[in-house]
Amino acid sequence: MGAPLRLHCTCYKKTITMPDTENTALKEIFNERRFRDMALDVKAVYPPFDTRRFLKISLAGLDELTLMQRLRRMTQALHATLPADYRQALEILRALAPRMGNGFATLVLPDYVGQYGQDDFDISMDALKFFTAFGTSEFAVREFLRKDLKRALVIMTTWSRDDSDAVRRLASEGSRPRLPWSFRLDAILADPSLAAPILENLRSDTSLYVRKSVANHLNDVTKSHPDWVLDRLATWPIENAHTAWIAKRALRSLIKAGNGRALAVIGAGGMPDVKLSKFAVTPRQVALGERVTLSFDLASKCPESQRLVIDYRMHYVKKSGVTAAKVFKLKELTLDGGQKVAIERTQNIRDFTTRVHYAGRHDVEILVNGVCLAKGYFDLSC
To answer: Which of 36, 175, 225, 298 has its CA 20 to 30 A from that of 79?
Structure first.
């Protein structure tokens, strides 16, 4: 282990202002100032730290690096300047964590563990559990799932019973088969039951933070194993409000797709006994940057009340000229027997980083419990 470390552990939390993503590139989370602040923070808890070498490594070609590349650069620079002994370096990072607040930059701490601690499995998993309270270890823990899935899942199942909601969430979020910004966990994609003990422990969790993660985990699974999720939910206590919340959010993709079993779980199964009238898409001619409004009346045709999930499906014109459909949530309601309601929704037609519009006819459909009851369109000019 080498000589004992002398660490200065005066702990305080520093507010980290996240950038305005519309005006500042996300990668500026890791700008030169962030690296210089990190150097000072490490120096404060570990006085022998070579700040000059750290900054030389960190800042070389920084402008050309993406957000995640900058994160990894910081990790690599720490590895090059902290003690070579992994456990000594980890002790320093543990002392550093409370000084960093709870911003995105704290991901460097678990990233260090994920990149350099895989040969010290149990110590590293415990470190990830510690670091997740300061940000999240959901990405780094996947390195350990990939290295030894069974061993990691055993540990993460114990996390799912932890007193900390951050640790419980890590158990669910870290084992998501399709976690955004990370690689897929092919074994769990093929067999979602591998992570089932974690989900079972969290199925009625009192923390919204945890419930969102459980629902997102299950939604991931619905994309390849919808019946597995539906069968699992059929055994859960849906009468529990927390469980019902998870189920509804977990099934959102299937509900949008009109899956009858998923709709039945939220009480909206079966063919809707309604009449849709006066459907209008206005204006018919729309320029980029303007708004389009959908409006219609919906009337019950039966004496009983009905639980209805109302969505609309927009067929966007792509650059190639073909169209791609996207379903948007519109409204959920209980329609009493003989009741009639007027529904209206306005949508801005403008470009986003995730969607670029192209001129042409855009078809629009109204879906009630997954069934298309009306069609219209507008012509977009760009």
So the answer is: 175
